[in-house]
Amino acid sequence: MKIISCMKPVPDPASRLIINETKTWIKDQDLTFVASEADNYALEEGLRLKEKHGGEVIVLSMGGEEAARVLRSGLAMGADRAIHLLDPKFKGADEFAAAATLAKAIEKDGGADLVLAGVQSDDLGTGMTGTMMAEFLGWVHATVVVGVEAAAGGKSLKARRELEGGINETVELPAPAVLTIQFGINQPRYASLKGIMAAKKKNFKVWTAADLGLADDAVGKAGAMYEVKEILIPEKKSKVEILGGTAEEATAALVEKLRKEAKVI
Amino acid sequence: MIFVVAEHKDNKLKPITSELLVFAQRLSRDFNQPVTAVVLGAGVEPLADEMKTKKIDRVMVADHPDLAEYTPDSYVGVLKPILEQEKPFVVLIGHTTQGMDFAPRLAVSMRHPLIAGCVEYEKQGDRLILTRQIFNAKMNMKTAVRGGPPYFATASPGAFPADDLEAGGNAEVVKVAADSVSSRRKILERTGVQKGKADLSSASIIVSGGRGLKQKENFDLIFELADAIGGSVGASRPVVDAEWLPREYQVGSSGQTVSPKLYIAVGISGAIQHLVGMQTARCIVAINKDPEAPIFKVAHYGIVDDLFKVVPALTKIFKDLKSA
Hints:
The structure holds 2 protein chains of 2 kinds. Chain A is α/β, with parallel strands linked by helices. In chain A, 29% of the residues lie in helices and 28% in strands.
C-alpha cells in the first residue's frame, strides 16, 4: 500500500498565544511548532497499515522551516520519505487553498492508495482540509475514523467512524480514499534514537507552487476563499458566580447555594 | 435566500436543525431574504410538515429510498443541482459529524467558500461577516467570504439556541425530484454504546472528571464525591483516551449528551466538544484551578482552586449531611 500521511505544523500546545498587531493571526515568530496532535494518530495508523500490508508511508506537509521540522519527526517515527511544500506564496492559505495544494502534491507524487490526515488541527480546528482534499482528488473519504482495515492488497478499505452519542458506523470504501483519523485511535509511537538517525538519510523532496503547476492566485492567501478580518478573545457572557475563600469555605458556600438558590440538592 | 439543510435521525429532526433555523431566521431579518429548509431522506415528509409550522418560507423535500441512509455522495449529489438552480445567498449546515462529512465536499465541488464552526455573525453594510472559534475556542476569528454567493456555513451546536425558534409559519412544501443516487461509501454496520451503569442520559446528578486529575488513581476522588452526593460518574474525552475509564463514561459530542439537574465538572477545561454534551444541565458547577478555563463560561457556580483540596472538602460536607 502507498500511504500518504498529512502533517500540519501548529504551535506547541504549551505555548502562550498572543494575537498579532494586525489582529489577523497569532504572533508566530518565536513559537515552537509541532505536528498537530491528531496528525500523529494518523501517521501511526499509516505505519501500522504498512507493517501489516507492506508498501510505503510518505509524510506530506506545507509551510516553512516548521513544516520541515514536523516532517523530520514523521520520518523519525518511521515514515519512508517526506514531501515538503515550501514556497512563500503558500503562506496565508485557508483550508480550501491548503487542500487544493496538498491534492496537487499527491497527484504529482503519482497518487496513493490511501491518504490520512488528523480529524482536525489544533489551530483552526475545523476539520475541513482532509475532506476538501478528497473532493479535489475526486476520491471517496470517511471522517472521524477510529479503526481501519485494508483488504485486497489495500484496494478495499473498511473504516469505523465515530458518530454522535457513542454510535460507531463501519463503512466500506474503495481505494484510493482519504480518511480523517480521530484522536485516541492508537498510541502513537515515539521516535527512537535510531529512528532519528535514520531519518537524516531518507528521501526529502521540496516542491514549490511552480513545481506543482499551480498559479500564484491558486495558493496561499491569494487562493483563500475568505479573508481574516479580526482575531479576538471572545467576550465572556458567563454569569458564573465564583466562590472564594479556603477550600472549606468555598465548598460550604457552594453547598448552601446548591440547596437554597439553585435548589438542585 | 437562506438555505438550511435539515439533519435528522430515527424519523426525528435533530436539535441542530432547530438551531440552524434560528440562525436562518436571524439572517433572514438582517439581510431581508426568505428562508428555505431542505430535508433529504426516505419517508421524511412528516419532518417537512413539522418544519413548515416554523416561521420560514418554504420546505423542500427530496424523498427517495436511496436517501434512507446518509452518505456524502448522495447528499452532495442531490444538493448540488438544487443549489445551482436556487442560487441561495447562504447555505447553513450543522457543524456536526454528519454536516462536516459532506459540507467541505459540497463547497469545494461548487468552488464556493465554507466557514465551518460558526458561533456568530454580523452584517457590515451588505457583507456577511461570520465568526468562528479557533484554537479550541480560546479565540474567535471573524471572516469575510470572497467571491459571489452561495456561501456555506456550518453552525456550532449550541451557538444559536433553539429556544429562540419562531413558530407561526405556514411554509409551502415543495417536492424535488431525487433521482437514484449511488454511493461509493457503503455502510456495513452501526453499533451503539453499551448501556450499563454508565448510562448517564437519565442521571439527575453527574460528577465528571477531566485531565486535571492527572492520573487514573486520582479518579477515585470523583467516585467518592459522586457516591457521597448520590450521583453518577462521567468523564471528558482525554480521560477516556488515556484509558482511565471506559468509553461509555464519556460526556460530549462523541460520547453521551446529558442534561442532569446538577453537573459538577472537576478538572475539565471545557473543550467545545465537551460543552455541547452537557451545557443544557440545569445547574453547572466548575472546579478548576485555571480561571480562564472555558468551562467557567457555561458554569453557574465556580471554585477556582486546586481540585485535590476542593473535592475532598466537598465530599466531606455531603458525607456529613448524609450521616446527620
